[in-house]
Design brief:
By secondary structure, this protein is of the alpha/beta class. The chain is 28% helix and 32% strand. It has a five-stranded parallel β-sheet, sandwiched between helices.
C-alpha cells in the first residue's frame, strides 16, 4: 500500500484529490496539508511514500518542499499537481515522478500511481524524465516510453506509442547520451530502443527492424554493430 500526502492551500482541491486517491486500491493512508509548513510537519511525523504537491502555495511553494525533502535519506516520490504548465522544467530538475495538470482526471491519476508503484518496487531508480514541447505546451515524458528517435536536421523527433516530440538535440548526441539506456543506432536517421523491438530481418536483402509497429531500415554501415548487439543478448547453454 502507498501512503500519500496531499498538499494544497485550497481545501476543496485537497479533498477532491484525496477522494480520487482513495478510490484506488493501491493507496493506503492519505494525509492532508493546507500549507507548505503543514506539509513539512506531516512528512516529519508520518510514514509517507509519495507526496502530491500543489506548486503555488504561499510562503513555502511545492517546489520549495520538493527541494527540502530531496535532501532527506529516504525522500518520498514527488508528484506536482498544478494548473500552471510553465513549471515542468523545474519539476524535471527536481526529479519529479509526474506532473499533473488541474483538473486532475481519474485515469491520468491512475497512471501516476502506477509510476509511483513501479518506483517503490525493489527500490527501483526514478525513471529518466525528458522535457519536451508540444503545441506550445511544455510537458515531461519518460525516456523508457520512447520507442525510437528520428533525425530531422539539427533536431530529433522522439516517437512514443501516443505521440511524437521534436527536440533541438542532434541524433548523434542522443546516440552517445543514451547508449547505456539501451538505445542503438541502426541508420543515419534512426536510433531505436531495444526494449521496444518486435523483430529484426538481418539476413534480408533490405535489413530492417520493427519497433512498436514501425518498420525501420538498417543501413549497411550499422548492420555489423546491430548483429553484434543481437549476438551479445543471445542465451547460450552453459559449458
Amino acid at each position: 500500500m502507498i501512503n500519500v500526502l496531499v498538499a494544497d492551500d485550497e481545501l476543496p482541491a485537497v479533498e477532491e484529490l484525496a477522494f480520487l486517491l482513495g478510490k484506488d486500491d493501491r493507496i493506503g493512508a492519505i494525509h492532508r496539508a493546507s500549507s507548505g509548513a503543514e506539509a513539512l510537519r506531516a512528512l516529519a511525523a508520518e510514514d509517507v511514500d509519495a507526496v502530491f504537491l500543489d506548486i503555488h502555495m504561499p510562503a513555502l511553494s511545492g517546489l520549495d518542499i520538493a527541494r527540502a525533502i530531496s535532501r532527506s535519506a529516504r525522500p518520498p516520490a514527488v508528484v506536482f499537481v498544478t494548473a500552471d504548465e510553465d513549471c515542468a522544467l523545474e519539476a524535471f530538475e527536481l526529479a519529479a515522478v509526474d506532473y499533473l495538470l488541474k483538473p486532475v482526471r481519474a485515469e491520468r491519476l491512475a497512471k501516476s500511481i502506477g509510476r509511483i508503484s513501479e518506483l517503490l518496487k525493489d527500490g527501483a531508480p526514478a525513471p529518466e524524465m525528458i522535457t519536451v514541447d508540444l503545441g506550445g505546451t511544455t510537458k515531461m515524458i519518460r525516456r523508457e516510453d520512447v520507442t525510437y528517435v528520428q533525425a530531422q536536421g539539427d533536431y530529433a523527433r522522439l516517437h512514443t506509442a501516443d505521440a511524437s516530440y521534436l527536440i533541438r538535440v542532434p541524433l548523434a548526441d542522443l546516440e552517445q547520451q543514451w547508449a547505456d539506456a539501451g538505445f542503438l543506432r541502426i541508420h543515419r536517421s534512426y536510433l531505436i530502443a531495444l526494449s521496444h523491438v518486435g523483430h529484426m530481418k538481418l539476413a534480408a536483402a533490405r535489413p530492417s527492424v520493427t519497433v512498436a509497429g514501425a518498420e525501420l531500415p538498417i543501413s549497411r554501415r550499422h548492420l555489423p554493430s546491430v548483429r553484434e548487439k543481437l549476438e551479445a543478448t543471445r542465451i547460450r547453454p552453459q559449458a
